[in-house]
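Researcher: We plan to redesign the surface later, but first we want a full-length starting point. Tokens attached.
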């Protein structure tokens, strides 16, 4: 039994205790029962340490991870009771963030795996070629959301550090797609931050990637803002888009094919094709553009998309995630990623069976889109309130398995 399995059995033991309290002896028995360990093996001792003191290595490991749970704020000692621990009230009220170096396989399907833990602890050890890393890192907001973020001054280094292990595992044909915020302003000023430009330059200069395009994610349902500068001071206009940057390891080998994301022809263009194309001859732009009879008349499978993506931020999957979170007593995500963004880029930049990863999983829309499109996937998310409800959206897929300890965890509503 590996350490991650042991950690999951310990968390499951506390989660399933009727009052959330366990003595150490009861914890040992519960872990042995859940892990299928013979009680004799649980009690067996070996010499440990310089003093060669006889200790049970399994019980020692249980106590070690018990301290991890304490450090995470999930359990606490029961006052005036020796060797008795219980779930804390705050364990169900706060966003439960995984502790550094602690990672747990939360659930998996035939195609992918979701890991509760930090991306910095997972991806350096991946050892598989990544065809696409698609993510939306926490924005450098001045008023952080519940999941937190680094400030603007630290943001470039933060994102580059997160990408370093991804780049080491990126296939030569692979891509990285980042959705970041347009709504970051200088302190007490309507002037926009240039952190986006600095981020793009750092990714190219420090990681050796190539900028392929700056997509505009046009979100007509985006709330009005910036309130101070647009609605009050009236020196700005409302923001309606966010940038999505596409980087490639090798621009000449990148696995991109716009035929995988063709859109239906407009009624006007369909009629033009039906007529056999243009009936006129014309010259525009001092000869740069020419229209000849028959131009645009060849039937095609669809229209090539433009680099402006008009998608709202609401989607059925986000609504389902909120319902599952409330049913399980967890906090809902304040800025869920819509399914439409990963669905587009996964189709555009990957093929069936290739690996897609997301380092800041959130509500796991990247994993969900990859699963539906037949791609292998791996997603990391270090906040339990987000990753636990996500498991409910994957139950219908082939090979679904959920960590028993993870399944039994509930929030406090």
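Model: Full-length starting sequence:
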């Amino acid at each position: 039994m590996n350490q991650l399995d042991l950690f999951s059995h310990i968390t499951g033991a506390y989660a399933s205790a009727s009052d959330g309290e366990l003595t150490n002896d009861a914890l040992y028995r519960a872990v042995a029962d859940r892990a299928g360990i013979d009680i004799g093996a649980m009690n067996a001792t070996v010499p440990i340490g310089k003093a060669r003191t006889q200790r049970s290595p399994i019980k020692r490991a249980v106590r070690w991870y018990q301290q991890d749970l304490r450090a995470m704020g999930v359990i606490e000692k029961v006052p005036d009771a020796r060797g008795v621990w219980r779930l804390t009230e705050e364990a169900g009220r706060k966003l439960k963030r995984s502790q550094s170096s602690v990672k747990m396989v939360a659930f998996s399907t035939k195609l992918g795996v979701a890991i509760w833990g930090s991306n910095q602890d997972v991806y350096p050890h991946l050892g598989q070629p990544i065809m696409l890393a698609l993510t939306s890192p926490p924005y450098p907001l001045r008023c952080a959301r519940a999941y937190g973020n680094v400030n603007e001054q630290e943001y470039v280094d933060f994102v580059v550090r997160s990408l370093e292990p991804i780049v080491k595992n990126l296939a030569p044909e692979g891509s990285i797609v980042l959705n970041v915020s347009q709504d970051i302003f200088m302190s007490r000023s309507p002037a926009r931050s240039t952190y986006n430009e600095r981020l793009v330059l750092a990714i190219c200069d420090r990681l050796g990637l190539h900028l392929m395009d700056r997509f505009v994610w046009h979100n007509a349902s985006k709330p009005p803002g910036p309130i101070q500068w647009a609605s009050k001071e009236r020196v700005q206009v409302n923001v309606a888009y966010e940038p999505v940057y596409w980087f490639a390891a090798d621009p000449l080998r990148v696995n991109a094919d716009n035929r995988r994301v063709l859109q239906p022809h407009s009624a006007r263009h369909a009629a033009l094709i039906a007529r056999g194309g243009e009936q006129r001859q014309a010259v525009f732009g001092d000869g740069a553009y020419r229209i000849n009879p028959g131009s645009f008349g060849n039937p095609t499978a669809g229209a090539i998309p433009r680099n402006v993506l008009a998608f709202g931020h609401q989607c059925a999957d986000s609504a389902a995630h909120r319902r599952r979170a409330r049913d399980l007593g967890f906090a809902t995500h304040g800025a869920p990623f819509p399914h439409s963004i990963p669905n587009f880029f996964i189709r555009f930049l990957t093929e069936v069976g290739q690996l897609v990863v997301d380092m800041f999983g959130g509500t796991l829309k990247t994993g969900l889109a990859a699963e539906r499109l037949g791609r292998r996937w791996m997603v990391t998310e270090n906040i339990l309130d987000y990753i636990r409800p996500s498991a409910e959206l994957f139950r219908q897929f082939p090979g679904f398995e959920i960590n028993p300890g993870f399944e039994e965890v509930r929030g406090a509503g």
